[in-house]
Amino acid sequence: MITCEGLVKIYKTDEIEVVALQGLNIQIDAGELMAIIGNSGSGKSTLLNILGGLDRPSAGQVKVGDWDLLKITDKQLVDYKRHTVGFIWQNNARNLVSYLTALENVEMPMMLSGNYDPAYAKQLLEWVGLSHRMNNKLQELSGGEQQRVAIAISLANRPRLLLADEPTGSVDTKTADMILAIFQRLNKELGVTIVIVTHDLSMAGKVGRVVAIRDGMTSSEFIARNSAMTADDGSGTGLAGDDHEEYVVLDRAGRLQVPKAYLTALQIDGKASMEFDGEKIMIKAPKVITASEGTAPNSHTVGGKTK
Ligand SMILES: Nc1ncnc2c1ncn2[C@@H]1O[C@H](COP(=O)(O)OP(=O)(O)OP(=O)(O)O)[C@@H](O)[C@H]1O
After folding, report:
1. Residue 204 is inside which H or E element, if any?
2. Within 10 Å of residue 111's Cβ, how many Cβ atoms?
3. Fewest Cβ atoms nearer than 10 Å: which of 67, 140, 216, 291?
4. Which mutation among 46, 56, 197 tests ligand 1's pocket best, with the greatest number of atoms within 8 A of CB?
């Protein structure tokens, strides 16, 4: 459903340019429920905003279904946001109207977009487990309940893709589990593709695939073997355990990102030597060549003279 290839996003301000995404590749299948993790500033929200049509890519390829988000016109983008994608933020509930009921809050955007469907509004609140709180004013609901109203609203336009940026960032563990269970149900029963950006490793650990972003590029991927992944292997993500297999991501040109911790441990800086023994590829610190050792290993001789 989603294909990003060599995706670049550059933010330009008066004096500086920030390269938020530098040639990111990612493929997300229709009907997938997956998570994106990464340190602060790695480009997660930038990616999500581009996929949600809130921000424009600078270069590369980004396709969602039949939509090409690099070439899309402003008018088509409005259509895309209205019909294809739903968005959930950490503090979504802030955008809700406190003196309206939960149901009225779901109905209102439906009315504004000309798709008023009261039966569907009720069904959405049932899906998020709030049928008993439908007629309560928003201010009477807890933070977690308000976030569930926000999830119901994000589905009001029947999107095929749901993007959630830190959806459990400001709720307790029990509510976070409940929100994840709602996502799992929506994914299974409605077939909505769901992409979650999160810092919450326990949440990431409960989905089938997790993609780690580092410095604006996809660096590694964790695929579930069984269910949960919680153990920290020291690789910096805290995700690889017995339950998930970690893979390094290679782009089309064969480039990969080597974790900084590995490079530091081997004091590799700028150059490395690479060997292939028929089964494995080994990356090592370059051999230090002293004057007494003579010719450098990467030089070659032509016509008897060293070049
Ligand atoms: N509107 C903007 N203008 C200029 N720079 C920006 C803008 N938005 C993001 N950036 C920069 O782009 C980089 C990636 O930011 P982004 O918000 O995508 O990271 P993130 O991984 O979501 O971080 P966090 O987890 O802290 O939200 C950062 O260096 C950030 O400062």
Report:
1. helix 201-204
2. 13
3. 291
4. 46
Q: Which two tokens stand for residue 184?
A: 């799992």
Q: How far apart are CA 147 and CA 152, in angstroms?
A: 9
- In short, whether 11's Cβ falls inside 6 Å of ligand 1 is yes
| Cα(188) to centroid(ligand 1), Å | 32
Q: What is the mean pLDDT of the chain?
A: 85
238 and 284 inside one domain: no
The span from the CA of 55 to the CA of 81, in Å, is 11
Burial of 288 (0-12, 13-18, 19+ CB in 10 A): exposed
Instruction: List 230's β-bridge partners, or say none.
Output: none
Task: Point out the ligand 1 atom lying closest to the alpha carbon of residue 55.
Answer: 1
Q: Is the CB of 247 under 6 A from ligand 1?
A: no
Specify the residue for token string 């020291």: 234
Q: What residue numbers bound the domain in which 269 lies?
A: 262-295
Q: Is residue 146 part of a domain?
A: no
With respect to residue 284, please indicate whether it lies within any of the assigned structural domains.
yes
Same domain for 164 and 80, yes or no, is yes
Tell me, yes or no, whether 24 lies in a domain.
yes
**pLDDT digits 0-9 by tens, 87-128:** 998 776 667 899 999 999 999 988 988 889 999 999 999 999
- Predicted complex ipTM exceeds 0.95: yes
For residue 6, give the nearest of 14, 16, 19 by alpha carbon: 19
Q: How remote is the CA of residue 20 from the centroid of ligand 1, in Å? A: 6
Judgement on whether residues 237 and 283 belong to the same structural domain of the protein: no
Whether 235 and 280 share a structural domain: no
Q: Which residue's structure tokens are 């995706």?
A: 7
Which residue has the least CA distance to atom 3 on ligand 1?
Answer: 11
